[in-house]
Write a structure and sequence with these properties.
Elements lengths: L3 E4 L2 E4 L10 H5 L2 E9 L2 E2 L2 H14 L8 H14 L5 E8 L16 E8 L2
Antiparallel strand pairs: 1-2, 1-6, 3-4, 3-5, 5-6
Helix pairs in contact: 2-3
C-alpha cells in the first residue's frame, strides 16, 4: 500500500512528492512547521494546531491560498487515505520558490506538505 502525502494542493503517493531545490524552506529554513498526533483515528486538538500554524505564517507574512477549514479537511482526509488510527502528522509550510534571501522576491505560492507516520 502506498503512503499518501498532501503537497501543494493535491494528494500524491509519497514517492512522487518532491520539493524544488529553490524552495525557501530548503534553502533558508524559511517556513513554519507543526507536529500533530492522532489517536484512535481522531486528530488531537487539530483546530488549535492549525490556528497556531496560521498565526505563525502571518508573523512571517506567508499567506496560504485557502482558509483554516480547508486545511483541517486536508489533514483529516490524509489521515483517512493513509488508514492510520494512531499517527504523527507533520505539517511544513515554506514561503515558496525563489533564489535569494529577500522574501519579496518569492512570486510562487507557499509550499505546503502534510505527511503522516504511524506511532510506534
Amino acid at each position: 500500500m502506498d503512503k499518501w502525502v498532501f503537497i501543494n494542493d493535491k494528494f500524491v503517493p509519497s514517492e512522487q512528492a518532491f520539493v524544488s531545490i529553490y524552495d525557501h524552506g530548503f534553502l533558508y529554513g524559511d517556513g513554519v512547521f507543526e507536529g500533530i498526533r492522532a489517536y484512535n483515528g481522531k486528530v488531537f486538538k487539530l483546530a488549535a494546531h492549525v490556528d497556531r500554524l496560521y498565526r505563525s505564517l502571518k508573523a512571517l507574512w506567508i499567506e496560504l491560498p485557502y482558509d483554516q477549514d480547508v486545511f483541517i479537511a486536508n489533514v483529516n482526509e490524509l489521515v483517512k487515505k493513509n488508514e492510520v488510527k494512531d499517527c504523527y502528522i507533520r505539517v511544513t509550510v515554506s514561503r515558496g520558490e525563489a533564489l535569494g534571501l529577500d522574501p519579496k522576491n518569492v512570486k510562487t505560492q507557499p509550499t505546503v506538505i502534510i505527511s503522516t507516520d504511524k506511532l510506534a
